[in-house]
């Protein structure tokens, strides 16, 4: 829903209730003149044992004055047992978003919260609210996490979010990045060829560059009813990937940023980060720290230490590119020179400071006897070479496939086959493009005999992977890659092609993949085992859908660290 001036006037003056279901309320004197409404729902996030962040946004007609908002936290949905309450002020400098870090709560407890507009010093109007939960403390039987990534608004309905909102139990939702996309609404822009794009056009209808642009895109996303429901269901623990700023971003720029026509990268990056902190239920950065340094720890009793990492904006080295970096001086492929570039130990995903933090936290987790060390990570960590579809399908079937494909699909399929034959990775934007840094992470796992589960987003596909050390002698971790909420995957362009079989056949570390399904990962962590359920929605082209578990995998920890087994269960 695009909220332009005409739409806003209709909401405020003619409706009586907004699209988000909130009653209009007259403005209190001394703060602003006009009417206000909660159009963007609520959210909670970054839960700890004794606190949680609460979020909402209030929309007011034509004002720059502060707006008072009352918040309450209770142990019951009827708010008869209120345990914390207070008043916050929404201001234009933060786009009238409200974020409260509520303290003094009990561990492992469900809470209900609400926001109300304040009139003449008293709460007024119908409340907007949700449910949240603090982290458990001490001995815990199990933890249930829903994991999501990559929601492209025009490409389909957010049915995965709706399914999460309807789960009988979810302790927290992990979002691994690409919560929004920065692209515009022109023909040919990403997602605009979808049948749903006509009713789900991006706002603003241009590529995001300014702070106002990023704010408007976040605002659009949070009008989506499925997204609102998922936010209201449980606390979210979030991290950005690239599209919260621009595609394939790194410390010094992005593939989708052209300084000559789009200005200074640092300014654009700062705008994207500021809007993210305003519009997301993430705890504000500590004084004296860079906002980009968003890595942080969440302790789920003695069952899991969740470590959310940042691999985009603080230290990432510029991605290699086959077109730019593979050719030698004579224009022919120079494999030796490319390998030297690829394996350069100075190529970074994380900076030294974050690596040291990761080592300290894993060490502390193991010393505390925590069952699992879970990495919330943006991109796939496994070694993945593209499939050789000709080898999998046979020459005749492969030739028939190529003859039916448009050139823009047939060409990358052939290029991928060439990379497969050369043993080169298909995605240089993932950990495959930074093997020395990946080896350092593996070394941390091994040094502390950790029992890691790596969670990954970005790829628009489900993955279940075993991660091995460089020598191929030790299984150091399990990896669950979550597919997208709506963003298109490789399998969408090659329906009916045995991509999943071909990937598993070509790659030792890949145990299962689905390159077309959309949905989420449901991860249940217990002492002695971790169960990952790959939950798919039947469609993203209609808000009516069904869910099914594509596969269920069980991970058991190794006695001396790493993973003992990863098997379908």
TrEMBL record:
Q: Which Gene3D superfamilies match?
A: PhoD-like phosphatase, Purple acid phosphatase-like, N-terminal
- Which CDD domains does the protein's record reference? MPP_PhoD (cd07389)
Tell me which UniProt keywords the record has, alphabetically.
Answer: Hydrolase, Signal
Q: Please state the Enzyme Commission number of this protein.
A: 3.1.3.1
**Domain named Phospholipase D N-terminal: which ranges?**
40-134
Q: Which Pfam families match?
A: PhoD, PhoD_N
Judging by the UniProt lineage, the source's domain of life is Bacteria
**Signal peptide as annotated in the record:** 1-25
Which molecular function terms from Gene Ontology are attached?
Answer: alkaline phosphatase activity
Top enzyme class, one word, equals: hydrolase
Q: What is this protein called?
A: Alkaline phosphatase D
